Amino acid sequence: MHELTGLRSVIEHYREKGEVVEIEREVDSECELSGIISALNSLPTTPGVLFKKVKGYDFPVAACILSEKDRTCQILGLPSSPLEFKEVFIKLTQNLIPPVKVGSGPCKEKVYTRDFDALKIVPSIKATPDDGGRYFQPIVVTKDPETGVQNAALNRAMLLRDNTVILNVRNETGVGQCFRNCKKEGKPFEVALVIGAPLEMYISGATKLPLGQDELSLAGAVRGSPVEVVPCETIDVHVPAEAGFVIEGVIEPPYELGTEGPWPEFLKYLSIPQQKPLLKIKALTLRKDAVGYAIVAGTKENYNLRISNDVEFYRYVKAIEPNFVIDAALTPGTAHWHHGIIQVKKDDYDFEGLQVHVAMAAFGFSVYLETITIVDEDVNILDMNEIDWAVTTRCNPSEQIHIIREVKAHRNNPIAGARELMDGSFVGKAKMIIDATVPWKYKNLKSGANRPVFERARFKKVDLKEYLSPHDHRRWK
Q: Which residues of the chain are under the pLDDT cut of 70?
């Protein structure tokens, strides 16, 4: 599907196009590097960045390559039109290309199995002064002990000392399932932390595939050819041969825990510290020209990494009522997780009320999902100004807002997570459905101009080329 392969080739391609900036001066990975990333994200268009000299490390660090949606689509070789992107991405998930095993690859150019300190070799960052420590933001590759199927996901890892990190394993994910299955059998949980891999693997790792499917197969479908994987040195896991760094580790019984966090979450708050398992590092392999990769939560890149959530949400909701649902999306302001917008075509009396039924069913998509807004087919679901307009002009709160009291949510949202700090209760909050569709009883209501009350004012269509000078038309079109 795409021609660019490898992190370095992507960086070089967009550097030549002027879309990647290089920072030559030495940068401290403790707060300074992330401060630059934050400042770049405040620009109207955020370039990718390559930090060529990172204090304390021998390797450069890249970031922000996926900050812009159009650039992300180009790298993936996928259409930038939102609905077309979803349809094409769905086809890719239905035509996965499994990885192919090879004997060796670039990630084996240097191998460390003794007398090494991975925490001093592989670049890590401390994002804010209040973080619990320094962090890796890797692709985590594991294997289910029951099925033998591998899983790839994005999970942060907080550095401790003596080749030990705390891995943020989340129960609801594939990595969490693999860990639970290992604990049931009393087995060590073998984990590979992959850093500096081709970017389609980061997107694939962030994708919500059904449990039991290998996300590296999705990366293969995106690139149109299988991902080559090599065996790890000390654990029974295969990793991308093109990776920059591969950290091999084990969570041993009795699965010792440590305090992980705080760390900035994608909702731009610091995380609530949690008890998570300790991973003991057994080996490190890397390529000689490795590039680290830093992802800071709450940035454009962090949100674009989750664009596949839109795809999966659209597929999930469309399957509920395919002839009624037109489109669906998760809002970028909630990191493509917490607020869903569903567009429907309510063109028959029998469809009245179906929009609420669909919204209630849509909450099954994820515990992260907390608010669902339903709009008519004339509302652009990607424009929050349009959503606000529809809620204001088409929703009577006493009739069209529905509250579902005290439901499981995710602690990343502090209004839900704070509960366990205060009274030890479960992590949850009320959830809300906002029906911003025109009530059927008003659909055919006419105004004095004999036009439907809820039809927008109509303006004459004109071609500005006929009115503006050639210079002004080129400037403003």
A: 1-5
